[in-house]
Amino acid sequence: MSHLTESSAWQALSSHQPSIKHMRELFKEDPQRFEKMSLKSCGFLFDYSKNRLDDKALELLIELANSANLPAKIKAMFAGEAINTTENRAVLHTALRADSNADIRVNGENIVPEVQQTLAKMEQFVADVHQGTWKGHTGKTITDIVSIGIGGSFLGPKIASQALRPFWTGHLNCHFVANVDATSIVEKLKGLDPETTLFVMSSKSFSTQETLTNTLSARKWLLDSGAEQSAVAKHFVAITSNVPKATEFGIDANNIFPMWDWVGGRYSMWSAIGLPVALLIGFNAFRELLAGAAEMDEHFATQPLEQNMPVLMGMISLWYSNFYGSQSQVVLTYDHYLRGLPAYIQQLDMESNGKSVNLAGDELDYTTGPIIWGGEGTNGQHAYHQLIHQGTALIPADFIMPLNSHNPLGEHHAQLASNCFGQTQALMQGRTYEESLAELANSSLSDAEKDVIAKHKVMPGNRPSNTILMDKLTPKTLGSLIALYEHRTFVQGAIWDINSFDQWGVELGKVLGVNVLAELNPSNQCNKFDASTNALINCFNSNQI
Ligand SMILES: O=P(O)(O)OC[C@H]1O[C@](O)(CO)[C@@H](O)[C@@H]1O
Fold first, then answer.
1. What secondary structure letter does DSSP report for 363?
2. What is its EC number (predicted)?
């Protein structure tokens, strides 16, 4: 057994779990349950009362967090300790949104001035593009941004741009290209004018195959339109921590926005990786996004564990993973602008906490990161909610909804809200056999038929959910929301004693992919690999038309 599973809090949680009553009972017994199990902070109402929790379970979860030294680990992250131990790096996405007077040190040096300088460079660039001072090579004003990047260098800017559509200034349109599948870039470039298109190339490492290939194709598209080589400087900017490689690639040194090895890719939208967002919503709004995240940082760093939103979210999610065998969790956004958020949280959480060894490298005897998925409500209600309500898997859900719509139209928003709240209620209370039977009382079915149908209509209930409400979706609330999930991910990694900040699991596929690429040639008969891989390669080689 590991240190964690041997701990008294873990053992006590295991023994206590079977005694937790159905949530229906818990709500009946305690009229104060919502007041006790909800929290208001950073512009959110966080309702966690519809969970399989009683006072004792909550107390023990906080005890587990304490026994895993969570408070000290939070301090270590904010202080810039090298908590990404396998890469010997600090983890300081929080420094990207820290106050300009803050003093945060990496290897003895305050990194805040450098962060501020980069923000100033971004601000100037946004102003130049918006005011038309920055022009394309034929002197025309830029109208379209094409952002090229993948993973953390794509999902953050993409979902933030989508979420903040009502805040776009109207100066620009933006298109995102991530996949190496040519269809992605070809379709995005259709209808764009090379003279008025600016490419923002985002790659922390400047070595990601997809991003380099797409950038080369973008450059070819520009040059094929008749532009001279010198035009590249007017149409390409890059964000990277590998400045030498970017200049070697041909990006003008003045057009490079730095980032740093102490920012993880999936935590990087607050750095210059967020440039497409700033170009769309303007720099003041971008600063609001940072301010929202900073507010959540402050909350996370200072609030006691039992009133700390990311801590509660993290511990509740861990409760289901480790003590109920739940393998998946769902994020349901009741807001069309937030439809991309589940995919973002999926990468954030699964790339961070999809690990099977602890910091010392020992294999774990407990479950880590769950499968995160989700989508937009109410659409999901007519697709996968059936399984969440009546399937055999336990899938805790996060419901996220702004109280006010950017598009108030008739009864739409009230209907959206009623669906959101109704779903959390149905998941919690379910429907008993007796209730199902009663619903059939006036039907013409025989008693035997009623019995069968009633059994099919039974919903077990006791299915957990959190609800996160905010007044309105704004740059600030979006910043707080994303930071909330970042810190939730951190909390779980800290308890599980894993490194949430490396991603060795994605490396092998990249390396093998390069070896395979060398074999893809119509005149080649491959026999270097296993029988399946050889056959797939040879099928490809012999079918090129
Ligand atoms: O920004 P880069 O270096 O191009 O990397 C892109 C993405 O690739 C990964 O390394 C692995 O998928 C992510 O963590 C990262 O965000």
1. B
2. 5.3.1.9
- Please state which of the ranges 236-250, 338-352, 486-500 shows the lowest mean pLDDT: 236-250
84 lines ligand 1 (CB under 6 A): no
344 vs 151, 323, 347, 372, CA distance in Å?
Answer: 9, 26, 5, 10
**Of 462, 454, 461, whose CA–CA distance to 433 is shortest?**
454
Can you list the domains of the chain with their CATH numbers? 3-67+303-429+463-496 (3.40.50.10490), 94-287 (3.40.50.10490), 504-542 (1.10.1390.10)
Of the pLDDT bands very low, low, confident and very high (cuts 50, 70, 90), residue 211 is: very high
Distance of CA 273 to the CA centre of its chain: 15
Please work out whether the CB of residue 186 comes within 6 Å of at least one atom of ligand 1. Answer: no
Q: Supply 545's token pair.
A: 């038309």
How far does the centroid of ligand 1 lie from the alpha carbon of residue 261, in Å? 12
Length of the chain: 545
The 8-class DSSP code of residue 378 comes to T
DSSP strand pairing (44-47 vs 465-470): antiparallel
Q: What are φ and ψ of residue 253, in 5° steps?
A: -55, -35
Residue 2 has pLDDT above 90, yes or no: no
Nearest CA to ligand 1 atom 8: 151
Three-state SS across 22-80? CHHHHHHHCCCHHHHCEEEECCEEEECCCCCCCHHHHHHHHHHHHHCCHHHHHHHHHCC
Compute the distance from residue 381 Cα to the ligand 1 centre, in Å.
33
Catalytic residue ranges:
351, 382, 510
Give the distance from CA 46 to its chain's centroid: 18
Average pLDDT of the residues in 527-542: 97
DSSP one-letter code for 21: P
179-201 residue pLDDT tens: 999 999 999 999 999 999 999 99
DSSP string, 482-522: HHHHHHHHHHHHHHHT--TT--GGGHHHHHHHHHHHTT--T
